[in-house]
Structures are given as C-alpha cells and as structure tokens.
Amino acid sequence: MSAARPAVAADAAAVEAVWTAVASEGEWIGTELPLHPGWRDRFLTALTGPDAAWFVVDRGGQVVGAVFVQAERGVGHLGMAIIEGHRGAGLGRALLDAAVEWARRGGCHKVTLEVWPHNLRARRLYTRAGFVEEGHLERHYRRKSGALWDSVVMSLILDEDSPGRP
Ligand SMILES: CC(C)(COP(=O)(O)OP(=O)(O)OC[C@H]1O[C@@H](n2cnc3c(N)ncnc32)[C@H](O)[C@@H]1OP(=O)(O)O)[C@@H](O)C(=O)NCCC(=O)NCCS
User: Fold this and answer.
1) d(Cα 57, Cα 48) in Å, to the nearest integer?
2) What spacing in Å lies between the alpha carbon of 151 and ligand 1's midpoint?
3) What is this structure's pTM?
C-alpha cells in the first residue's frame, strides 16, 4: 500500500486534477466546479506556511489522492479526495493518518471536518480512525443547483489532558 507523502510544488497540477475530477462527480466534496481561479496559488501558499499542509498518495507514479489540513486556533480543518478507481484500497486511511499526525506534531488540540450525510464510506473511514460526530448542520450549504445540503461535523480530540471549564 502506498504511504502518504508531503506534497511539493511540482504536485500542483496533479493535485488540482484530483480535486477537479472529484468535484466533477458532484457527490462527495464541498468544492464545486469551476475551481476558484486562485486555487493553485492557495495550494502553493499552503506548502510554504506553518499553518497548513498537503499530503498526497501516488500509484504508479501518478498522484491519485490528496488531503489538506489547515490549522486555526489549534484546530486542524481537514479535507480529502481520492479519484475514482483508487478508492477502497486503504489510501484514505494513509492520507488521514498523515494529516492527523501533522496536526498532532504541530500542537493542535483537535482535528475537525465536515462530511455530507450520504457519504457513508467517508464517515466509516473517519469513525474507524476515532473521529466522533459532533453535530448535524441542517440545510446548511447552498449547492450550485440551488439545493440546500445538510452536513455532519466530525472531530478527533488530540488533547485529552488540558482541563475544560470547571
Ligand atoms: C472517502 C475516501 C477518502 C475514503 O478513502 P478510501 O481509501 O476510499 O476508503 P475505503 O474505501 O477503504 O473505505 C473506508 C471504510 O468505509 C467502508 N466502506 C466502503 N464503501 C462503503 C459504503 N458504500 N458504505 C459504507 N461503508 C463503506 C470500507 O469498508 C472501509 O471500512 P473498513 O476499514 O471498516 O473496511 C475516498 O473514498 C474518497 O476520496 N472519496 C471521494 C471524495 C470524498 O468523499 N472525500 C471525503 C469528503 S468528507
């Protein structure tokens, strides 16, 4: 099984192609086409700063999946996508583990993400990795079709030791 590796600038076109392909399915990720014109610049900026990271998985020398994690106030916000034909082979778990480890090493106390309720495969992946459902956002996201989609918030707490509010 391929391990995830940190993305480099030379991966920009390949990662953009992955995001475009998965977005074009219109079913799994929040992004809808066309990608934002600044998408590639944001990807490249994320590689250089301390607050974000991308990891990719290769198969046969081709990038087939990617995950980003963006840290904000100690919470890592995560998103991932694997192109059709390479799903169901453990690549999702490899990407997820790399992103969570990056957040842990960076001192994040929590990792969070949102997933469409119908995305049972993704929900299963996150649950198996220890994420729990924290909330259900009803009629929250306006899609380009005009429809309002619900979203499930899932999180993994990394810091169980700091005190909460007494
Ligand atoms: C979601 C995604 C990242 C998961 O990665 P993956 O490598 O394909 O993961 P797997 O196919 O191994 O599935 C993960 C788990 O879901 C289970 N699963 C697969 N298909 C399923 C289905 N239709 N319904 C329920 N569970 C399913 C698998 O059995 C596995 O569970 P297990 O470890 O207990 O066996 C990947 O499929 C993907 O990129 N999909 C499109 C984009 C997307 O959904 N991104 C996430 C947005 S929140």
Assistant:
1) 19
2) 17
3) 0.95
- How far CA 85 is from CA of 21, 76, 112, 144, 158, in Å, comes to 12, 28, 26, 26, 32
Task: Tell me the DSSP string of 48-89.
Answer: HSSSEEEEEEEETTEEEEEEEEEEETTEEEEEEEE-TTS-SS
Q: How far apart are CA 55 and CA 8, in angstroms?
A: 9
Which residue out of 27, 114, 121 has the highest number of ligand 1 atoms within 8 Å of its CB and is therefore the one to mutate? 121
122 CA to middle of ligand 1, Å?
A: 5
HSE of 150, CA atoms in CB hemisphere, 13 A: 8
**Tokens standing for 6?**
């940190």
What are the pLDDT digits (tens) for 99-147?
999 999 999 999 999 999 999 999 999 999 999 999 999 999 999 999 9
- Helix (H) / strand (E) element for 110: namely strand 110-115
What's the gap in Å between 101 CA and the centre of ligand 1? Answer: 20
